[in-house]
TrEMBL record:
Residue ranges occupied by any AB hydrolase-1 domain in the UniProt entry: 132-385
Protein name, entry field: Monoacylglycerol lipase ABHD2
Membrane-topology annotation of the record: Single-pass type II membrane protein
Pfam families associated with the record: Abhydrolase_1
InterPro entries: AB_hydrolase_1, AB_hydrolase_4_sf, AB_hydrolase_fold, ABHD4
Biological processes annotated in GO: acylglycerol catabolic process; medium-chain fatty acid biosynthetic process; medium-chain fatty acid catabolic process; sperm capacitation; steroid hormone receptor signaling pathway
Keyword terms: Cell membrane, Glycoprotein, Hydrolase, Lipid degradation, Lipid metabolism, Membrane, Serine esterase, Signal-anchor, Transmembrane, Transmembrane helix
PANTHER family: ABHYDROLASE DOMAIN-CONTAINING PROTEIN, MONOACYLGLYCEROL LIPASE ABHD2
The species this protein was found in: Salarias fasciatus (Jewelled blenny)
Primary location recorded for the protein, binned into one broad class: membrane
Record's catalysed reaction(s): Hydrolyzes glycerol monoesters of long-chain fatty acids; 2-(5Z,8Z,11Z,14Z-eicosatetraenoyl)-glycerol + H2O = glycerol + (5Z,8Z,11Z,14Z)-eicosatetraenoate + H(+); a triacylglycerol + H2O = a diacylglycerol + a fatty acid + H(+); an acetyl ester + H2O = an aliphatic alcohol + acetate + H(+)
Molecular function GO terms recorded: acetylesterase activity; monoacylglycerol lipase activity
EC number: 3.1.1.23, 3.1.1.6, 3.1.1.79
Annotated localization: Cell membrane
Amino acid sequence: MSTHESDVHTLSQELPAMFDGMKLAAVATVLYVIVRCLNLKSPTAPPDLTYQDTPLNRFLLKSCPQLTKEYIPPLLWGKSGHLQTALYGKLGRVSSPNPSGIRKYLPMHDGATATFDLFEPLKDHPTGEDITMVICPGIGNHSEKHYVRTFVDYAQKDGYRCAVLNHLGALPNIELTSPRMFTYGCTWEFAAMVGYIKRAYPDTQLIVVGFSLGGNIVCKFLGENRTNQERVLCCVSVCQGYSALRAQETFLQWDQFRRFYNFLMADNMKKIILSHRHSLFGGSSLKKIDMEPSRLYTATSLMQIDDNIMRKFHGHSSLKEYYEKESCVHYIHNVNVPLLLVNSGDDPLVHDSLLTIPRTLAAKKSNVVFALTLHGGHLGFFEGAVLFPQPLTWMDKVIVGYANAMCQWEKQKPMCQSGESSCEEEKA
């Protein structure tokens, strides 16, 4: 065999091996990217809790095991905050129920019409008391969203009446009756719903629940006036950002793709606003509020929409003033009822720097517990073994578990505050 033929023969043997090596390298690279993107090596752990050592908090941690046990998300994708957030945004919840409620309409002082849906409990509350959960959903959300329906159904089955605010302008089949829609921190509609519940059910006690933007609204509402805390047993806020002004800069960063999420939320807000274009921009209302609807079409961020439209509903002179006055960070320290603040460490919408607010508050105020999970995304908190999540999430369970503990505490408060160990042991 000639030297030339020998070289060709050797090369023909090496090529398959070379291609096999390239395939293995490509597979290894893909697997590495999957492991990194899905965060598969991240551990699971119980929530990181910040709280003061008080009889109430000791009772709470014994009575609400979700706060002290390991939160285990679905193995293959649950450790990715992006996938948790995306699945919440697209699916809402798995096998969502359809609870039956009655829609209520409340005329507001400025001509607007607030609406909320009322769901009666499906059984007596374990304490025998009349308890109503007043619920404020996330941005642009309402009682028909899957995650809200799932939670309401779960709460009803545990003996709670539920009242769910429909953000002004969020329901596609309800027309606005004034040139105004919901904003980041306007508490008027939520206050109207709470007022209705207190009048219609004079013996009921309230548990306040807020999701995301709704968390900001409910904490601001409670802190605005001490009378707003009357007949309130406790409050739970999940995945809020506490300060819109501080969050503004982080929403323009590409870290954790927040700029992309900002664009998606802005696009959704544009659709909601444009669906009410006649009520908001028609006739004399455009001149009176001095809006600029033409800039809405080119807006690529929530800040642009807030500056050109949203802040003008309440006459704020600047975007900074709007964010300052509508953020709960300036009111939450006035809340004296038991308060559970829940956030996720991998929430792509809430920057880690914002979490110093609830952590500092819980360290200073004995009524506040701050729970930070490693995983969960934004309003995700799905649970499950490997691939398919369970219908109920960790978030659903922890809110009802916390509410149950607070109701038990209220019923046995004199005995618990006296320091008798039998109180904690009985309900542990």
